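User: Quick sanity check before I run a bigger batch. Here is a single chain. Can you write out its predicted 3D structure?
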Amino acid sequence: MTNISLPDLAPDAREALIAAARTAVDTAYAPYSGFHVGAALLFEDGAIVTGANVENASYGLSLCAETVACAIASHAGRRGGLVAVAVMGGAGGAIDAAITPCGRCRQVLNELAALGGTDPLVLCVGTRQVIEVRLSALLPHAFGPASLV
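Assistant: Done. Predicted structure follows.
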C-alpha cells in the first residue's frame, strides 16, 4: 500500500481512524447501488464518530456516510474540533480504489470544521493506497458560516 501522507496525524490515530471507517463500511445500507461507504471522524479529544451510507428508494433522499457521521457528531453535541476524516467504500463493501467525499459531503464536513476553525486531514482509503489531503484542498473557496456575516 502506498501512502501520500501529510505528517501531522500520529500513526496510531491514523490506523484507528482507518479501522473505524472500515468497520463502518459493514453497516452500510446500499441495496440499490451496491456501493457501500464508511466514514470516520476524529476529534481533538481522540473521539471517533462513524457513519455509513443509507440509500433510499427515492434516490435523492439517500444519505452519504460522511453526512451521517456529521449528523451523529452534531447530535452528540460536537460543534468543532474535527481533526481528520477517513472515507472508504466499494461495490459490495469491497475496498479497492481510494475514494474522496462527494461535493455535498465536502460542504457538510466544511460546516463542522468551520465551527471549530479547523482544516481536517481527509484520508481517502483504498486497498493499495491512502491519499491524504486537507479539506480546504478538496473544497477551495468554500461557503461556510463566515460567508453569512
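Helices lie at 11-25, 65-75, 103-116, 135-138.

User: Great, the batch can go ahead then.
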